[in-house]
Amino acid sequence: MKPWIKEFVAIVSAIAGIILIVANGAYFGYSTTRIGYESGLMRAIIGIVLLGGAVTYFWTKSKFYKS
Q1: N- to C-terminal Cα distance for the chain?
Q2: Which of 5, 12, 29, 51 has the maximal Cβ count within 10 Å?
Q3: Distance of CA 36 to CAs 7, 14, 20, 24, 64, Å?
Q4: Cα–Cα distance, 39 to 54 (Å, whole number)
């Protein structure tokens, strides 16, 4: 896989994670049903995982990472 594709996927992952976390903040806690609460929690977890993956990718490519 070419390096620019990996970077593109990491950037898209970071943007998607941020969108899920921010959009989830607008709806999280306003739903009184259990299903609404669980789906909001899943959106938050998926957003954190996507953002964490992108941060990890760019951290391993930085000059501060010691391998």
Answers
A1: 21
A2: 51
A3: 34, 24, 15, 11, 41
A4: 23
Which amino acid appears at position 24 of this protein? Answer: N
| Residue 33 CB coordination number (10 Å) | 8
Rounded to 10 deg, the angle between the 34-60 and 3-27 helix axes is: 150
The per-residue pLDDT string of the chain (67 residues; one tens digit each, 9 = 90 and over) reads 888 999 999 999 999 999 888 876 655 555 555 655 667 778 888 999 999 999 999 998 888 877 6
> Cα Rg for the chain, rounded, in angstroms?
15
